[in-house]
Amino acid sequence: MAWRAKNTLRWSVRTARRADWGLLRQYAAGLLAGDLRAQRARPAPPAAPPTAPGITVVIPSRDGKDLLTAQLPGIVAERPEQIIVVDNGSADDTAGWLRATYPAIEVEHSPAPLSFARAVNRGIARARHSHVCLLNNDMQIEPGFFRALRRSFDEVPELFSSTAQILFPAGVRREETGKTVMALRGPEDFPVRCDETLPGEDGSYVLYGSGGCSLYDAAKLRALGGVDEVYEPAYVEDLDLGYRAWQRGWPSVYAGGAVVEHRHRATTSRFFTEEELGRILEVNYLRFLARSVSDRALFRRLWRHALRRLLLRAGHAPAPLDAAPAIARQGCLEPAPAYREELFLALNDGSVSVFPGRRATGKPRVLVASPYLPFPLSHGGAVRMYNLIRRAAAEFDQVLVAFTEDHAAPPAEVLDIFAEVVLVRRAGSHALPLTGRPEVVEEFDSNAFRAALQQTVLKWRPAIAQLEFTQIAQYAADCAPARTILVEHDITFDLYQQLLALNETGPLRREVELWRSFEMAAWSKVDRVVTMSEKDRRTVAGATAVALPNGVDLERFRPADSAPDARRLLFIGSFAHRPNVMAVEFFVNQVWPRLKDVTLHIIAGARHEQYAVEADLRQPGIELAGFVSDVRPAYRRATLVIAPLVASAGTNIKVLEAMAMGKAMVATAAGVNGLDLAAGEDFVLVKTADEMAGAIERLLSDEGERTRIELAARARVERDYSWDTIAAAQAELYRELDGEPEEIAP
Q1: In angstroms, how far is the first alpha carbon of the chain from the final one?
Q2: Residue 580: strand, helix, or coil
Q3: Could you check whether 351-547 and 568-721 share the same CATH topology?
Q4: Residues 6+ apart with CB under 8 A from 362
Q5: If one looks up domain 351-547 in CATH, what number appears?
Q6: What radius of gyration do the chain's Cα atoms show?
Q7: 65-79 tens-digit pLDDT
């Protein structure tokens, strides 16, 4: 312990520009006390009395008659079953005024002012109903407030608290929103904050409900011993309460439909200076860490961050470093939590947002877990997901947990097909751990996603959990007890084997082995594996594999009535997928020089400029586009579509779309990988750059041959590749899997 304090002190001398030696000694003493923190049991609360259904509102008020005058009419109009005002040392005759004006309101009077925790605990002790709403006297509620808070308890199992959306008067900076999160950011930033919610966001998980506008499960509130009265005179007690509830697996959520206007610090600012309030906040935050954070490694990290922040801010903010040793020595009062603290802190770090979608119907439930949103249709995987999910919505209630890179609400097209959408914002990292798993698997390994998935499973109780893409297989165990399906959009180690054959390197050879080990192990951990082709199904083998091929929307993608542009080629493939870049490099470098008077249109997907392409795409005749939301006009203009892939796994949806549009295609074997197509009838197969250039010139010149292939291509997809047919097979798989008895481990 001593060496750790010594090394940290050495760091402090270099970085704490404003600190003096006295502060450094306090800092070192606080660190040492934190390392020596003991753990002891919290006293058991008394048995909770029986309660009747309904809501008890508890309002602490100190000299707040004017605030109550404005607040109470709105509360009374909502008709909660019980209202208790804790008259907390008031000198404005609050109690007498209440008895005369609102005789039905119960008054708990304290001649001397109490802390917030002591005041509300006196009100909680008198609560007779199943739910308790703690409401500050400077909160003005909007109609439907209690109903919106109460609804959350019907939707979320084991819910501890539901907290309101907090607005501020016009012209006042919004300091709270209701969405409370905790994340370590900059060294001088207080780790707990309120985030702005996104349009349509409702039901997102929060670390705690604001003690000034939240509804609590009364039995759970009493099981925690009420509000901890160590937090004098106010602040952090609600954080502590919510944290201790999460430790027991009792979540808190944000209820966007419950709205209050907060006249911020209308009470506290009358009795304390800004400097005093700042010190109160800092001391109570240290108390919270020492008393309630159970995991030793987590406590040490949070404690050190807190003390470093106080040291750095010592020159311009209250720095109660002197209090830290005594606070740490009081020890932790919590037993080992039932729910891992690292998990629920990740869930509540600001990266997770929940959005209600279409109304649930009571039909069987399917959870979809995906590394990407199924809309917009920016890549083949999204096209597949969207088309099958849209059709499944008629028979199943579906919920989505998906990663996103953007801080934005999901598009309407997604909300229209899911009952709920949970988005987890993913931050890229260049420092991935070496764990013996593929890099992509590590990139998508997220405690926030894992916790969001676990909570969504608890909330919705899905019969089926469908894991899209290989890297999401790592979350199969988090979907229990749902039956699990892994959708292999491609056999990833097969793709890497092809890349290795083209360019053998040590790192690539290592990725092949990592993917083979991870992927084959994943197949044994799910109930079914869905592949895109019979070829891939045979690779998986075993009774758990089933082929559900890719398809095409035959109504959306139809042959054009107008003639195409003359001698115009089209290639569609996101540069985010390495085989598409290799295809472009092959075609532009080896085939393009053999062609004359031809236009090549490349649709390379979003952020295509981020990907290195070893080919000159700026030369005359080449048109390069990024993401295109509707590719049908590009197909209509094209005389031919090309698929010059040199490596591929899974199947290429763009091939099927081109065929449905009635386009003749020139493709390599990799370009039509996994598709049961007849070369020479449905498309033209080539092996070399010379063959591809010759086939393109022949079809550009021979309209009759081109028309024959166009008609055959459309007929083939009509027969075998309709999304409607594939969706029906997927629904049958769901029904079959839901009806199977669950295997019980020996």
Answers
A1: 45
A2: helix
A3: yes
A4: 397
A5: 3.40.50.11720
A6: 31
A7: 999 999 999 999 999
DSSP structure class, residue 552: B
Average pLDDT estimate for 280-306: 95
| CATH class, 568-721 region | alpha beta
* Full DSSP string of 652-718: -HHHHHHHHTT-EEEE-TGGGTT----BTTTBEE--SHHHHHHHHHHHHH-HHHHHHHHHHHHHHHH
Per-residue model confidence as pLDDT tens digits over 214-238: 999 999 999 999 999 999 998 999 9
CA-to-CA dists, residue 18 to 10, 24, 187, 191, angstroms: 15, 10, 14, 21
Q: Which letter does DSSP use for residue 50 in this model?
A: P
Q: Which residues contact 408 (CB under 8 A, 6 or more apart)?
A: 198
pLDDT of residue 264 exceeding 80 = no
Question: Could you tell me the CA-to-CA distances from 476 to 368, 457, 486, 487, 664 in Å, in that order?
Answer: 11, 12, 8, 12, 41
Pair of tokens at residue 639: 């005389």
- Output the six-digit token pair for 468: 């899209």
Return the H-helix or E-strand segment holding 626: none
CA angle 245, 248, 251 (to 5 degrees): 50
The ranges assigned to domains in the chain are 52-272, 351-547, 568-721
CA distance 213 to 209: 8
114 and 122 Cβ atoms separated by less than 8 Å: yes
- Judge whether 471 and 449 are in contact, CB under 8 Å: no
Cβ atoms of 667 and 643 closer than 8 Å: yes
Residues 6 or more apart in contact with residue 667 via CB below 8 angstroms: 642, 643, 644, 645, 655, 683, 684, 685, 686
Go through the chain and tell me how many residues it has: 746
Q: 642 is written with which tokens?
A: 């090309």
Residue at token pair 């608290």 = 161
Specify the CATH class of 52-272 in words.
alpha beta
CB 515 within 8 A of CB 441: no
Q: Could you report the per-residue pLDDT of 532-549, keeping only the tens digit for each?
A: 999 999 999 777 999 999
* Burial label, 569 (beta-carbon count in 10 A; 0-12, 13-18, 19+): buried
The 3-state DSSP class for residue 107 equals: strand
Q: Is 467 exposed, middle or buried (0-12, 13-18, 19+ CB in 10 A)?
A: buried
